[in-house]
Structures are given as structure tokens and as C-alpha cells.
Amino acid sequence: MVPGWPSADAFGRARASCSWLILAVGVAYAGVRLRPRVGDALLVGFGVGVLIIALATGMQMLA
Length: 63
What we know:
Helix content: over 70%
Number of helices: 2
Order of helices and strands: HH
Strand content: under 5%
Structural class: mainly alpha
Distance between the termini: 25 Å
Mean pLDDT: 68
Largest sheet: none
Shape: elongated
Number of strands: 0
């Protein structure tokens, strides 16, 4: 087990893959809608993805 990474159980794997999926969706959305230039699109997309992941993680911690 790697420190800081989710455990190897099914819930941990699903949570990790869901986080990467949300990050990828943020990148794709920014590329299509927010900015026409690739560099800005990636920057905004990663920012949106990270904010969504942080929000989802915070909500899980409160539950």
C-alpha cells in the first residue's frame, strides 16, 4: 500500500477512478467551452477538475 493512496478495496479503487474521470471531464469541458487556446483550456480544466474533486472529498469527509 502506498501512503496517501486509497486502499485496495473496491470502494477505494472506485473513488480513485472517479476522481480521475471528474478531472478528465473538467479538462474536456474547458477545451470545448471556456477557452479556445489549448494551454488556457488545460489550465482551466485542471482547475475545475481539482475544485470538483476537493468538493466531493470534503462532502465525503462531512458525511
